[in-house]
Amino acid sequence: MVCGDLNSRIGELSDFLLSDDLDKYVESIEHVVNPIISDRRSMDKTVNAFGRKLLQMCFNTGLVVANGRHCNDKDSNFTFCTAKGRSVNDYLLVPPSECRLINDFIVLPMNEFSDHMPIYFELDLSVIRQQNLPRIHKFIKWDNNRCDEYIQILQFTVTTY
Length: 161
Hints:
This protein is α+β, with helices and mostly antiparallel strands and 161 residues long. The chain has one domain (2-134). 20% of the residues lie in helices and 17% in strands. The chain is built from three helices and seven strands. It has helices spanning 49-61, 126-130, 147-160; strands at residues 2-5, 64-65, 80-82, 85-87, 90-94, 102-107, 119-123. A three-stranded antiparallel β-sheet has the order 1-5-2, with no helix packed on it. A two-stranded antiparallel sheet has the order 3-4. Strands 6-7 form a two-stranded antiparallel sheet. It is extended. InterPro entries: Endo/exonu/phosph_ase_sf (IPR036691). It comes from Mytilus coruscus. This is Endonuclease/exonuclease/phosphatase domain-containing protein.
């Protein structure tokens, strides 16, 4: 996932390539069925050069724009406002398979701290936990006689991660 001020205006151009399904005919490539992605809307109809680069990045990485697709932001509200005008240039980019994790997506009202409106979104990570992730717990029961061993384990764990 990528979220932030990307200084890009993409209007309502498509941010993903429709699958041609040709990969299923090539034995060395694993066929992946893309989830159905809803059309994206935007209040900002302008496209700029950075926007085209952002779309190319989406095509290359398979990420899609969450703005204008989810919950309370079906119209992709403006995320930037100055005396010169308004635009959408703050985005949340997600893999299509992870769109289902977005429970809520809202562009919050402007505040006195920035000319950008904050993006608020909630992810339901319980969906992931229930699927294929094993639960791994490591517990160390304290024993004063084994302090040196605990220190070595903790130092190894910290340097490993």
